[in-house]
Design a protein that fits this description.
38% helix; alpha/beta; 7-stranded parallel sheet; 3-stranded antiparallel sheet; 10 helices
């Protein structure tokens, strides 16, 4: 099989099975694993898949920049954000992550809510300007423009001095084996610090993130308390996550 058709076959297997196992594919095509691994490297360089040990996973579409991510599953993000807002109770201290779904969460918090929101996202903080009952604590640091969040040593130090009830976390990939992933090393560090400083972590994930993976691991699925998804999230994409032990809540069941 020539290189072009072979790569197309690899991508079709990835779409069909949600993963590519290099050894199994080499046996199927009667080719060496070195050949398959070379194809995977080249496809990864084109941004068409995410290489992992032993094969590849779907690449996370949510790695687009902030403005680009606003175009991904907007209806799902509104539903998830509205449902997440119902989970915030009066008097709580909550971390709200950066990202487009997090902005929807902030947008749907009740104007009369009395709570404290800690965030490293200027976009989230701006959404809360009219919520006079919410104490907004904005964590500073170096602005990571791709996600419009603060990262770096200053942000890490500030997070370490806070204990929150809940962390509403965003991730670019949620995969049963690869875990919770994101597209930047420093952003992954911040997310881990926020998880460690909160009593529970609720992961907010629209459908394009389910079964996908990015290069930087935030944590295994087991470290999250719950996954909040849109009502229309497919059972096929959720089944492996449930089998891995992750509690899943659909947005129309929240609150």
């Amino acid at each position: 099989m020539l290189t072009g058709p072979r790569k197309q076959h690899i991508l079709s297997v990835l779409r069909r099975d949600g993963q590519v196992v290099a050894k199994a594919l080499s046996e199927e095509l009667a080719l060496s694993e070195d050949t398959i691994r070379r194809d995977l490297r080249e496809l990864a360089a084109e941004g068409l898949l995410q290489r992992v040990h032993g094969g590849a996973l779907p690449v996370a579409a949510a790695e687009a920049d902030f403005s680009g991510r606003q175009q991904l599953a907007p209806d799902e993000k509104v539903a998830i954000g509205r449902a997440a807002a119902r989970l915030v109770k009066p008097g709580q201290v909550v971390f709200i992550d950066g990202g487009t779904t997090a902005v929807q969460l902030a947008r749907h918090l009740p104007l009369a809510l009395q709570a404290t929101v800690v965030t490293h996202s200027p976009s989230v903080a701006v959404e809360l300007a009219a919520h006079t009952g919410i104490e907004v604590v904005l964590i500073g640091g170096r602005l990571f423009r791709h996600s419009m969040v603060a990262v770096g040593a200053a942000a890490m130090a500030a997070i370490s001095r806070i204990h929150a009830d809940t962390y509403f976390m965003g991730a670019t990939g949620v995969h049963a084996e690869a875990g919770l992933t994101t597209g930047d090393a420093e952003e992954a560090e911040i997310k881990r610090a926020l998880m460690a400083a909160a009593a529970e972590t609720v992961v907010l994930a629209s459908s394009e993130k389910l079964g996908a993976a990015s290069a930087w691991v935030v944590s295994p699925l087991a470290d999250a308390t719950q996954l909040l998804v849109a009502p229309q999230a497919s059972e096929q994409s959720l089944a492996p996550l449930r089998a891995a032990g992750l509690a899943i809540l659909r947005a129309d069941e929240a609150g």
